[in-house]
Amino acid sequence: MRNVDSAKQHIRGDNTFISWFGGFLLKIMGWRVEGSPPDVDKYVIIVAPHTSRWDFPIVLSMTFVFKIQCLWMGKASIFRPPFGVIFTWLGGVPIDRSSRHSVVDQAVQAFQDREKMVMGIEPEGTRKRAEYWKTGFYYIALGANIPMVFGFADFERKVVGFGPSLMPTGDIHADMEIIRDFYKDIKAKFPHEFGEIRVKPAKNRGV
What we know:
Blueprint: H1 16-28, E1 32-34, E2 42-48, H2 55-65, E3 70-75, H3 84-89, E4 92-95, H4 103-113, E5 117-121, H5 136-144, E6 148-154, E7 159-166, H6 172-183
Parallel strand pairs: 1-7, 2-5, 2-6, 3-4, 3-5
Antiparallel strand pairs: 6-7
């Protein structure tokens, strides 16, 4: 089973065509891009809200525009043939949650082993309303000592982009207040499915 540590990011480099193609897809869908990625080599992109199937192609197109080599994690079942090869090429990493190795630990080690790495994570973990955000994104950033970048897709304004960055302080509740304040005005495609931004108690943390 391919995991976070063994995954390789596909080199887009200065591929002008992919950047143009990403912009073209957004344009025909009526979207525009706002903000820009941080000028650092490693970071976690918070991808929110996540309430529809459209979130993925919209945010993925944005990474094409900026030529970002971005990894993202998904349940192993979606990587089965015939679409597994495509998802892998797009930066997908299948996660086996039955593994004895923590996904957070795998991701932290992967960041530490690389000079450059970007990972996009949807903290809600589902398109349905979630009572809590999964905290893996936070503890990956904290463990790797890298910033979290506020990625967003605002369906009301039809704008996808990058908000500010935040270095995790270790006080997750204080940091979540900052995250909550940013996303409070971002409109999901299905607003009733975008739950309150809060975290569970410390045990049973997940990505």
